[in-house]
Amino acid sequence: MEIKTLHDQHVHTLYSVDSEALIEDYLDVAIKKGCSYFVMTDHLDYDLPSYDFDWIADYQKQKEEIALLNKKYQGKINILQGIEFGYKRNRIKDIKEVISSVNFDVINMSIHDYADIDFYFKDAFERLGVNSVISMYLDLYYEALCSGIDFDVLSHIDYAYKTALQVQPDLKFSVHEAKLKVIFEKLISMNKTFEINTKVQETINNKEHARYLLSLYYSLGGRDITISSDSHTIDRYLSSFDEYKLLAKQVGFDHLCYFIQRKKHYYKI
Question: Which of 240, 264, 261, 266 is nearest to 80 (CA)?
């Protein structure tokens, strides 16, 4: 199935601890932008080192709200439910239980932290060394791919890299190309989708970095990508999509992937 209008596959609402955005406010924006679908992917993160509580959205309550909103907005937009989980090796069973308890439309897999390291903050990079932390972070992504947790999209592979740049501004992600290749080859073999996260890209603010990632993935045979905003506020919905669609097309990609009921659909670019 080909999707005729673009929509965002990585979006957070007030069901996530780090967002106060109302679903209906997003819907107003999505409808104005001509989207046929809207999906939210609120957090599932256990044992966060920077917090003394887990980030777990109330997915059942959210599902009930979605059902009501789908009636209210019938004929205007279709509202879907997704999830973004943060991989934890000691929480694999818990993660599997949550993602199997709800019929999610899309499942995004991320790495946000490990043990006492929060990859959002630069202290670990300063304490342990930039390349040491990035190497550990990429090893975790590969471990997550091999964990047996089902998912659709590998999200923001360069999440930790954007933080590392605060400590070492001249750092090139390509220093870790061997590990990136292993991750991409595994991802491709699993028929999963690679995300270009515009929130991360806007922070890094270097189109050549994004071009490098897309080109490396493409050179290994990867063809399935999604462009996602990782928005936590309505003003970032579909942020920078035109720029990164153009970049993806320049690299050689001719479509983006989107998910409805965990089935892969396509949007031509």
Answer: 261
Ramachandran category for residue 262: left, alpha or beta (phi over 0 → left; psi -120 to 50 → alpha): left
The DSSP bridge pattern shows strands 153-154 and 193-197 to be parallel
Q: What is the pLDDT along the chain (269 residues), one digit of tens a residue?
A: 677 778 999 999 999 989 999 999 999 999 999 999 999 999 999 998 888 889 999 999 999 999 999 999 999 999 999 999 999 999 999 999 999 999 999 999 999 999 899 999 999 999 999 999 999 999 999 999 999 999 999 999 999 999 999 999 999 999 999 999 999 999 999 999 999 999 999 999 999 999 999 999 999 999 999 999 999 999 999 999 999 999 999 999 999 999 999 999 999 99
- Name which of 113, 106, 60, 117 is nearest 261 in CA terms: 106
